């Protein structure tokens, strides 16, 4: 487990998993927490049970049906059947916000008073669609009172994209050009962590922590969809004690 290094209130708990320490085999080895990637269902159930036990979770996490969009839901009863969304917000103890990733960027949120937390899944499409901004708005607190931790994602030396991706960001904010490095053939290397920081700053959030861990490069620690194709997913979770 990775424990976020951020100055969250004492009643805010958070963690991000690695690929190690579970029951899955083959390309999903070993702590895959996703039930939609072809892994054995019994292994996924065992991994999720181990996750709850290791973290002493107060409830089953609010698993989402992630669609690379900007939808945000309340973590609660509605999550008994995974809603189509890419972020969730929790306002009371006993509700766990979670996202699954394997190259996309997981972002965990809390407010300084320890009354609200959230988790967001931000690939480039979600970032461009405004999933981080929608999560901030859904927390319904002053953005200046929000803390964000950015988890492991594909790094800027490995995430090559087409010109349309750069255009989507630079059209919305010319400063986003700083997060891209030109490659031959009208290709670009994109920095998801830098793009997230820019989007959060524009939304009024300047207390941003984490970043720097690359899922593609750290093969033994993280799943990477771009590197391996068939693979598992890590979970990033946050909840109120």
Structure in words:
This protein has 241 residues and is of the alpha+beta class. The protein has a single domain, classed as 4-Layer Sandwich (CNF1/YfiH-like putative cysteine hydrolases). It has 6 helices and 12 strands. The strands form 3 sheets. A 6-stranded mixed β-sheet has the order 2-3-6-5-7-11. A 3-stranded antiparallel β-sheet has the order 1-12-4, with no helix packed on it. A hairpin with a 3-residue loop joins strand 9 and strand 10 (187-190). The two termini are 18 Å apart.
List the helices and strands and how they pair.
Layout: E1 12-16, H1 41-55, E2 72-74, E3 87-90, E4 96-101, E5 105-111, E6 117-122, H2 124-129, H3 131-139, E7 146-150, E8 160-162, H4 163-172, E9 180-183, E10 187-190, H5 192-202, E11 207-210, H6 225-228, E12 234-240
Parallel strand pairs: 2-3, 7-11
Antiparallel strand pairs: 1-12, 3-6, 4-12, 5-6, 5-7, 8-10, 9-10
What are the salient characteristics of this protein?
CNF1/YfiH-like putative cysteine hydrolases, 23% helix, alpha+beta, globular, 3-stranded antiparallel sheet, 6-stranded mixed sheet, 241 residues
Which CATH architecture?
4-Layer Sandwich
Secondary-structure element pattern, one letter each: EHEEEEEHHEEHEEHEHE
Shape: globular
Mean pLDDT: 96
- Distance from first to last alpha carbon: 18 Å
Q: Outline of this structure?
A:
This protein has helices at residues 41-55, 124-129, 131-139, 163-172, 192-202, 225-228; strands at 12-16, 72-74, 87-90, 96-101, 105-111, 117-122, 146-150, 160-162, 180-183, 187-190, 207-210, 234-240. It is α+β, with helices and mostly antiparallel strands and 241 residues long. A hairpin with a 3-residue loop joins strand 9 (180-183) and strand 10.
């Amino acid at each position: 487990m990775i424990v976020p290094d951020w100055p969250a209130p004492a009643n805010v708990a958070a963690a991000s998993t690695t690929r190690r320490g579970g029951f899955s085999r083959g390309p999903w080895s070993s702590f895959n927490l996703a039930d939609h990637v072809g892994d054995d269902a019994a292994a996924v159930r065992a991994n999720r049970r181990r996750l709850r036990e290791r973290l002493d979770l107060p409830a089953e996490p609010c698993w989402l049906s992630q669609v690379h969009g900007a939808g945000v839901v309340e973590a609660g009863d509605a999550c008994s059947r995974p809603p189509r969304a890419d972020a969730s917000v929790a306002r009371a103890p006993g509700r766990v916000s979670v996202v699954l990733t394997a190259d996309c960027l997981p972002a965990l949120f809390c407010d300084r008073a320890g009354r609200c937390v959230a988790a967001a899944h931000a690939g480039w499409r979600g970032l461009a669609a405004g999933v981080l901004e929608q999560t901030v708005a859904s927390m319904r607190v002053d953005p200046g009172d929000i803390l964000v931790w950015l988890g492991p994602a594909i790094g800027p030396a490995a995430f090559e994209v087409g010109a349309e991706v750069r255009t989507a960001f630079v059209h919305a904010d010319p400063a986003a050009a700083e997060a891209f490095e030109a490659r031959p053939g009208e290709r670009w290397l994109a920095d998801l962590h830098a793009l997230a920081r820019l989007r959060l700053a524009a939304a009024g959030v300047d207390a941003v922590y984490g970043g720097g861990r690359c899922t593609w490069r750290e093969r033994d620690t993280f799943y990477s969809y771009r590197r391996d194709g068939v693979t598992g997913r890590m979970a990033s979770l946050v909840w109120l004690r």
